[in-house]
C-alpha cells in the first residue's frame, strides 16, 4: 500500500484486522515496505518462514493444505512483484533513452 501511495486509513485498518495476530516478522515488515526491492525481500523472508512451518507440519494436520496454499500464494506474489519491478525498470530505461534522444535532437553547447 505504501508503494502505491494508499493513504486511506480504513484500507490499512481493514488489512491489519484481517492479519490479526499474524502481523509480525516479514508480514509486519511488508506493511511498512516502501519499495519493490523491500517487498521482494520481505516476501522471500515470509516464504522461508512458511516453508519451515510447512516442513514441521504433519501432512494429516488440518492446517497442512492451508499452509501449502499460503506457500503458493507467496510464490505467486513474489513473481508478480518481480514482474512489476522489471516493468518499472523498463519505464525508467525508456525515460533515459528519451532523454538521450532529446539531447541528440537539441544539442546544448
What share of residues is helical?
Answer: over 70%
Helix count from the secondary structure assignment: 4
Could you give the order of the helices and strands?
HHHH
How many DSSP-defined strands?
Answer: 0
Beta-strand level of the residues, as a percent range?
A: under 5%
Number of domains: 1
**Poorly predicted ranges:** none
Q: How far apart are the termini?
A: 44 Å
Largest sheet: none
- The helix/strand class is mainly alpha
Q: On the 0-100 scale, what is the average pLDDT?
A: 90
- Radius of gyration, in Å, reads 20 Å
The coarse overall form would be elongated
How would you describe what is shown here?
The structure is a single chain. By secondary structure, the chain is an all-alpha fold. The chain has one domain. It contains 4 helices and no strands. The chain has helices at residues 9-19, 25-32, 36-56, 64-105.
Summarize the structure.
By secondary structure, the protein is mainly α.
SSE inventory with pairings:
Layout: H1 9-19, H2 25-32, H3 36-56, H4 64-105
Helix pairs in contact: 2-3, 3-4
Task: Give short descriptive properties of this protein.
single chain; 109 residues; mainly alpha; 4 helices; 75% helix
